[in-house]
């Protein structure tokens, strides 16, 4: 009996320490940087971000992350370039409108708020393993929703776009290319947790 009680307490403790944090799309940006002509940076955003981060603050390695990006929203500030990026020569958004990430492993990254999150990135119809360097803030009270909480996460990685079939390019002088194969990706995400559901009142004794 004692073992059953201890097991129940441990199970309840684990549930209490884990929480689902929804990505607040209105406060989430997936940015990228590519080199143009090998000398200048071109910056852009990939589109609206949705998903959830199940965070276990007692054992962060038990956390999981899933995110989806609407690539139709890709923007660099130049319409002609945006249209090219959406075309079959790049993302082919008509066929592959979303990019997704699903974690497979969460590790501590040294400092208390640093993580390394490995998982599968699916983009342009291709799935490859990647690892994000992540910084996760503590939670604070949401000033607009009584009882709710918010926290932030930043994530970054560098990838070779050709690994996902994004191979369009033009050779230039000095054995260079018009667009770099190496792309830097950076996400700034606000996460929100809904208020805890009120406890149900015990039924009145008859």
Describe this structure in words.
The protein is mostly beta strands and 206 residues long. The chain has one domain (17-193): Lipocalin (Beta Barrel). Helices cover 12% and strands 51% of the residues. It contains 2 helices and 12 strands. Strands 1-3-4-5-6-7-9-12 form an 8-stranded antiparallel barrel. A two-stranded antiparallel ribbon has the order 10-11. A hairpin with a 3-residue loop joins strand 1 (18-36) and strand 2 (40-45). 17% of the residues are buried.
> What do we call the CATH topology?
Lipocalin
Helical region count?
2
CATH architecture: Beta Barrel
Q: Give the N-terminus to C-terminus distance in angstroms.
A: 30 Å
User: What is the N-to-C succession of helices and strands?
Assistant: HEEEEHEEEEEEEE
Number of domains: 1
Please write out the topology:
Layout: H1 2-17, E1 18-36, E2 40-45, E3 49-56, E4 64-70, H2 79-86, E5 98-109, E6 111-123, E7 126-136, E8 140-141, E9 149-160, E10 171-172, E11 176-177, E12 182-193
Antiparallel strand pairs: 1-2, 1-3, 1-12, 3-4, 4-5, 5-6, 6-7, 7-9, 8-9, 9-12, 10-11
Q: Gist?
A:
The chain is 12% helix and 51% strand. It has helices at residues 2-17, 79-86, and strands at residues 18-36, 40-45, 49-56, 64-70, 98-109, 111-123, 126-136, 140-141, 149-160, 171-172, 176-177, 182-193. The strands form 2 sheets. Strands 1-3-4-5-6-7-9-12 form an 8-stranded antiparallel β-barrel.
């Amino acid at each position: 009996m004692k073992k059953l009680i201890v097991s129940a307490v441990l199970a309840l403790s684990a549930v209490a320490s884990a929480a689902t944090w929804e990505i607040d799309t209105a406060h989430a940006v997936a940015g990228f940087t590519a080199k143009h002509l090998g000398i200048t940076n071109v910056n852009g955003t990939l589109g609206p971000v949705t998903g959830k981060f199940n965070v276990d603050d007692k054992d962060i390695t038990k956390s999981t992350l899933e995110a989806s990006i609407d690539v139709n929203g890709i923007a660099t500030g130049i319409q002609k370039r945006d249209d090219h990026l959406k075309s079959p020569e790049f993302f082919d958004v008509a066929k592959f409108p979303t990019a997704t990430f699903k974690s497979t492993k969460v590790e501590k990254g040294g400092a208390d708020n640093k993580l390394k999150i490995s998982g599968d990135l699916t983009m342009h119809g291709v799935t490859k393993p990647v690892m994000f360097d992540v910084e996760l803030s503590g939670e604070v009270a949401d000033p607009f929703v009584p009882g709710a909480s918010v926290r932030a996460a930043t994530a970054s990685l560098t990838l070779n776009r050709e690994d996902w079939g994004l191979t369009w390019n033009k050779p230039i002088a000095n054995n260079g290319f018009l667009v770099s194969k190496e792309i830097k990706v950076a996400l700034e995400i606000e996460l929100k947790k809904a208020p805890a559901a009120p406890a149900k009142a015990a039924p009145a004794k008859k």
